TrEMBL record, chain A:
Species whose genome carries this gene: Nonomuraea cavernae
Lineage: Bacteria, Bacillati, Actinomycetota, Actinomycetes, Streptosporangiales
Chain positions covered by the region annotation Disordered: 1-20
Compositionally biased spans, kind Basic residues: 1-12
A Pfam family that the UniProt record links to this protein: AllH
Protein name: DUF2877 domain-containing protein
UniProtKB/TrEMBL annotation, chain B:
Pfam family, one: CoA_binding
GO MF entries: succinate-CoA ligase (ADP-forming) activity; succinate-CoA ligase (GDP-forming) activity
Location of the ATP-citrate synthase/succinyl-CoA ligase C-terminal domain: 328-450
Entry's Gene Ontology BP terms: tricarboxylic acid cycle
One GO CC term, this protein: cytosol
CoA-binding domain mapped to chain residues: 195-277
Organism of origin: Nonomuraea cavernae
Name assigned to this protein: FdrA family protein
PANTHER family cross-referenced by the UniProt entry: PROTEIN FDRA (PTHR11117:SF24), SUCCINYL-COA LIGASE SUBUNIT ALPHA (PTHR11117)
Length: 283, 454, 450
């Protein structure tokens, strides 16, 4: 009879760069985590924790830097859906991999002061493409209500849109995320208090029961968007609108995201932009 | 097989093959391969042009009629059969096409590397060669950090003037620390993103300020190093002025901290004028006009944030203090700050050029400072810095713990680092404390503690 | 982020998941650090190099005529031109001496070989480098008054340059052969080929060599050791005019041109010469405007340093040999044909010519690597000369002596190999490394000029 002599598999210590949005969950006491999805460029890990974002994305350089992601300096671990790991005490442990952040980036970099006139001129150059919910009544209601600052309409539309559409990040969530981030940043940049106020209410509405209304990944991204956190592609378009970088290339890069994600986010940004301009007009 | 030289051993093979074409270079290679066989004296494998036929005739081969479209083979040697087999092998190899992906040429100069997309250049080649690489960066329109020291002040001025023309920033020479949007270059700490931007003529000074800010929960937008000589009369603050303007234009920066030794009057005037013109408030941390910890506290108050108790792990060594304070430093600015605060004793900056010639920086290689610890006399107080962060010793506590424990003097450590640093601030503090040292995250506090012991 | 220097700092960036482009830095050529620093700090350098290389790459060489050397080059008082930097009979190598003897006999300055030798030994013929007279010559590059020359004009900047007509392969004057068949061929060229081509080009008008070279590159020539496509293209331009100009001589002229894949080389060299001459004399420029060998020395000239030559010993090419010849039969590197490399062709365009890559020792990938490496020491990519296999990237053009010193990378030169004994002719072809000191001496002189 042989006694099992399984060699203990050594841990591979890996470093990376993380969005500062995931710092709270990474620095919280250790909690169990589970692989929700695994792709060639990213692994989504759901952490059993009340801290948001509760889903973090481990990604390679080729992937979109979602606001809840940790960019690895090495290759992704070989894992499958359902694999268990740990997150917390400054570390992600998954399979043989032990990951620590050696750099933090800001997923909601301040835009600084923004000239509303410039926004107005840039607005026609923001192309929306073909969003998944083109012509949807709830989207139209959302756009109309935002522009008028009509809170009840905004909340009604948002209720209908959370989780609407197929895929990991349903189109409805992407529209809302694009809108939230835009209201926050352009609202703050132009000093449009009504837009920021609207963002606060909308954020509270969509995050209230997002965890039960949509996919865990999408719910996490809505939580991020509620705080103004987004991927660099979204931030770049906002910077482009504000005249801080070239707009057209940024819009093209945004449209390349996902199946309809880029267009859905662009639709949300467009709604937010119109609202900021409308709400910031002469009172 | 035809012909023969009459020699019993030697033999000639002459063949004409039709319908085979290879370029002359390919065939010369085959000839060469055959000629190199031990049993071959001469081999000609060539298209039967007049020139090649004449060559073969000169070698007294007996040739049949052949034209330029034919392949002529003429081999002489004592083992022509091997040569013939090799010929067939070589010709077959020629026919099978080979395509290989050529490896990319790695860039050999910064100029060449800058043909690819890039945003910053980090130069750390030996000082006498650093100018060329830095110049390439500036001329490619890229900001550059020159970690190397030993660049003459004339070249520094030239570089910075050119950088002004190209609208890019030159950090350095002799710039040890920079952080750009969270990316630490050289010796830098792992910092959270936030509203404070630094312009620093001192690397360790910047590390002290940013580490304390981070411990206070306040992040940093960018740390722009300018090099220790930037605020001299010769350089006149060229990079400082540019860096201040860049941070002023950066929406993420709400407050600027300027870290430097007191500048030369000319540079001070130029910088002062620019500071007055900025929209962003500036806190100056000029050594001698206050310490770095005070400047950090001033910055926090300017942001309307509260100033925490700076983490410290003071201990009681039980050793009597009868002697003097010995500063055993790796950071020049930290050393100068401590010397000013203590006001007496012996201070050595082991990061000075005099000590780094031919060896690694003391933040990486502890050897010289280990010697200094061993040499300390009973009754002395050793005041030393341990700087954490990127590129520094991966476990300095492990390097020093033994020496501290055995050191007959009382040891006080200024531990400069953040909770996010790869070395783990708390683990380092615990290990140093365990070894018997008093540990302070503020260098100024460590220095005052040492002063008060004596 | 580009990193150059300490690996530790680059690793720290990688640990932060920062994409880095590490420079494979190495110290500059020994003894050049000081001169490099002074030359790099010369405030004129950047603009001077931009101007010089822009003139080099914007030149538009056109073949405008075929004319007798005596008409266009002032060769009175028994002057011969030769390849490379200056050399006298004393130091001349076998093939150079052979070619000089042949030219002396051809011009009738002596009646036999012994007479020619003693005339040359006694300095009875003045020897000057081709390069000083707007001329280039392949291999020995000997030009004597009666020879016919391609005349190439730069339609952009108006310069003129000359190169002799190519005699073909085998025993030829440029490889130092001077037997009766060599002289007979030269006399036929003098009597028939020159006048017929001259008349033909008068009919065609200027032929755009820049366009022709660009096409040939895309047809697998690198324009130094392979000129098959370029020769065919030139022949296509010339053939009807040759028939019109001299119907009774057309067949022999066309057969001669057609029988020599390198016929275009000389026209291409004149194109290179007129282009690099356009880049001369820009004060402060470190651009190489000539690389040339005389069989003894390898010399370079630099835009910012006028007509001064900087030399080192010519190396023996490493290559493949004809017939039973071997390295022992080879003469050190010789000829002005390195004007092709100087103007961004030849070895620099190896990737365009997979058919000849075996000179480099093997594979297509080696040729691509050779061309790619030359981007490290050149100032520009040619706007018109492009390499299909590299995604139509322009060829590397404009050698900068500071980049040669910094990288230690020497220009890749394709070349024919001459026999070391006068009269032997060509013994092979291959690659040769220029001597580094030619470049470091030029650099030192640039430093002194700052």
């Amino acid at each position: 009879m042989t006694v099992g002599t399984h060699a203990r598999r050594p841990r591979t210590h890996v470093t990376g760069a993380a969005s500062s949005a995931v710092r709270p969950v990474l620095e919280a006491p250790r909690s169990p985590a589970r692989v929700l999805a695994a792709f060639s460029t990213g692994v989504y890990l759901e952490v059993r924790s009340d801290v948001e974002p509760s889903v973090i994305a481990l990604i390679t350089g080729a992937a979109t830097r979602l606001p809840n992601s940790v960019l690895l300096a090495a290759g992704l671990p070989h894992v499958t859906v359902g694999d268990e790991g740990w997150v917390g005490d400054g570390c992600v442990q998954l399979g043989r991999l032990s990951l620590r952040a050696h750099r933090w980036w800001d997923p909601a970099p301040p835009l600084g002061p923004v000239d509303p006139l410039r926004l107005e001129q840039a607005a026609p150059r923001l192309t929306v493409g073909s969003p998944g919910l083109a012509g949807n009544d709830a989207v139209d209601l959302l756009a109309g209500s935002c522009a008028r600052g009509w809170l009840l309409g905004v909340m009604t539309a948002a209720e209908q849109l959370v989780g609407l559409g197929p895929g990991l990040t349903p189109s409805g969530d992407d529209v809302l995320a694009g809108l939230l981030v835009t209201l926050r940043h352009l609202g703050a940049g132009t000093g449009t208090e009504r837009a920021v106020w609207l963002a606060d209410w909308l954020a509270a509405t969509v995050t209230y029961d997002a965890r039960t209304r949509t996919t865990p990944i999408s719910a996490t991204l809505l939580h991020c968007a509620a705080r103004g956190e987004a991927s660099p592609e979204v931030i770049a378009v906002l910077r482009g609108l504000a005249g801080r970088q070239a707009l057209e290339p940024a819009v093209r890069r945004l449209h390349r995201l996902g199946h309809t994600s880029g267009s859905d986010l662009a639709q949300g940004i467009a709604i937010g932009l119109s609202s900021v301009l409308a709400l910031g007009g002469p009172a | 097989m035809s012909g023969g030289t009459g020699d019993v051993v030697m033999g000639d093979v002459v063949m004409v093959r039709t319908g085979i074409y290879h370029d002359s270079v390919a065939l010369m290679r085959v000839s060469k391969a055959l000629t190199e066989l031990p049993g071959t004296e001469v081999a000609i494998v060539a298209m039967a042009t007049e020139l090649n036929l004449a060559l073969a005739r000169d070698l007294r081969f007996d040739l049949p009629a052949a034209g330029p479209a034919d392949l002529l083979v003429a081999i002489r040697g004592h083992d022509v059969e091997t040569a013939t087999r090799e010929l067939d092998r070589q010709l077959a190899a020629l026919s099978s096409s080979r395509t290989q992906a050529a490896a990319e040429q790695p860039p050999l100069t910064t100029r060449s590397a800058a043909r690819r997309p890039a945003d910053v250049v980090l130069v750390s080649v030996p000082g006498e060669h650093a100018f060329a690489e830095a110049l390439d960066a500036v001329q490619s329109g890229l900001p550059v950090m020159v970690f190397s020291d030993g660049v003459s002040v004339e070249r520094e001025v030239l570089l910075k003037r050119l950088a002004d023309e190209r609208d890019v920033l030159v950090m350095g020479p002799d710039c040890g620390t920079a952080v750009i949007a969270g990316v630490g270059l050289g010796f830098a700490n792992v910092l959270r993103p936030g509203p404070v931007g630094l312009v620093a003529a001192s690397g360790t000074g910047a590390q002290q300020v940013t580490s304390l800010l981070d411990l206070a929960g306040t992040g940093v937008s960018h740390v722009l190093g300018v090099g220790g000589r930037d605020l001299s009369a010769e350089v006149g603050g060229l990079s400082t002025v540019r860096a201040l303007r860049m941070l002023d234009d950066d929406p993420a920066t709400e407050l600027i901290v300027l870290v430097s030794k007191p500048p030369a009057p000319e540079a001070a005037r130029a910088v002062g004028e620019v500071v007055a013109s900025l929209r962003t408030p500036v806190v100056s941390a000029l050594l001698g006009e206050g310490d770095l910890t005070e400047a950090t506290e001033q910055a926090l108050r300017a942001l309307g944030r509260s100033v925490p108790e700076w983490p410290a792990w003071p201990g009681w060594s039980g050793k009597a203090v009868t002697g003097t304070v010995r500063g055993v430093y790796s950071g020049g600015t930290l050393c100068a700050e401590a010397r000013l605060i203590v006001g007496r004793g012996e201070f050595v900056d082991y990061g000075d050029d005099a000590y780094t010639l031919g060896r690694a920086h003391p933040m990486i290689d502890p050897a010289l400072r280990l010697e200094a610890l061993a040499k300390a006399a009973p009754g002395d107080v050793v005041l030393m810095d341990v700087v954490l962060g990127h590129a520094a010793d991966p476990d300095p506590a492990a390097s020093f713990a033994h020496a501290i424990a055995r050191c007959p003097a009382t040891v006080v450590v200024a531990l400069v680092g953040t909770e996010g640093d790869p070395q783990d601030l708390h683990r380092q503090a615990a290990a140093l404390r365990e070894a018997g040292a008093s540990v302070f995250t503020s260098n100024a506090h460590a220095a005052r503690h040492a002063r008060d012991l004596t | 982020m580009i990193t150059v220097g300490a690996g530790l700092l680059q690793e720290a960036l990688e640990a932060q998941a920062v994409a880095t482009t590490p420079v494979e830095w190495r110290p500059p050529l020994p003894g050049t650090a000081d001169a490099l620093a002074r030359v790099l700090a010369d405030p004129r350098r950047t603009a001077a190099n931009e101007r010089a290389v822009a003139r080099l790459t914007s030149a538009r060489p056109h073949l405008v005529g075929v004319r007798r050397a005596s008409e266009v080059l002032d060769l009175d008082g028994r002057t011969f031109l030769h390849a490379g930097p200056p050399v006298d009979w004393e130091r001349a190598s076998g093939p150079m001496r052979g070619a000089l003897i042949g030219a002396t006999l051809l011009e009738g300055y002596a009646h036999d070989e012994d007479g020619a030798r003693s005339l040359l030994e006694s300095g009875g013929v003045r020897l000057e480098p081709c390069h000083g007279r707007r001329t280039v010559g392949p291999m020995a590059g000997v030009v004597s008054p009666s020879m016919w020359m391609f005349e190439v004009r730069d339609a952009e900047h108006g310069g003129l340059a000359y190169c002799s007509l190519n005699e073909g392969l085998g025993k030829v004057l440029r490889y130092g052969a001077y037997g009766p068949e060599v002289l007979d061929r030269l006399r036929w060229m003098d009597r028939v080929l020159g006048p017929v081509l001259s008349a033909a080009i008068a009919l065609t008008g200027p032929i755009d060599l820049r366009a022709l070279i660009a096409q040939a590159l895309q047809m697998g020539d690198e324009l130094h050791n392979r000129n098959r496509a370029a020769t065919s293209l030139l022949l296509r331009e010339l053939a009807p005019a040759v028939v019109d100009a001299a119907p009774e001589r057309a067949a022999e002229v066309l057969r001669f041109v057609n029988g020599n894949d390198h016929f275009f080389l000389n026209a291409g060299m004149a194109a290179g010469k007129v282009s690099t001459d356009a880049a001369r004399d820009v004060p402060g420029s470190s651009l190489v405007v000539a690389m040339a060998r005389n069989g003894t020395d390898f010399g370079v000239q630099v835009s910012g340093l006028g007509d001064r030559w900087f030399t080192g010993p010519a190396g023996v090419p490493d290559g493949l040999y004809l017939g039973a010849y071997g390295p022992a039969d080879a003469n050190p590197d010789i000829g002005d044909s390195t004007i092709t490399e100087t103007s961004g062709l030849g070895g620099f365009a190896m990737a365009a010519a997979p058919a000849i890559v075996r000179f480099v020792g093997g594979e297509v990938s080696d040729a691509i690597a050779a061309t790619r490496s030359m981007y490290e020491i050149t100032l520009a990519e040619h706007p018109v000369y492009q390499i299909p296999g590299l995604g139509f990237r322009g060829t590397p053009v404009g050698i900068d002596v500071t980049l040669v010193a910094r990288t230690g990378l020497l220009p890749v030169v394709n070349t024919g190999i001459a026999g070391r004994v006068a009269g032997t002719g060509q013994v092979g072809a291959g690659l040769v490394n220029p001597p580094a000191e030619a470049f470091t001496r030029a650099l030192a002189a640039l430093a002194d000029s700052v």
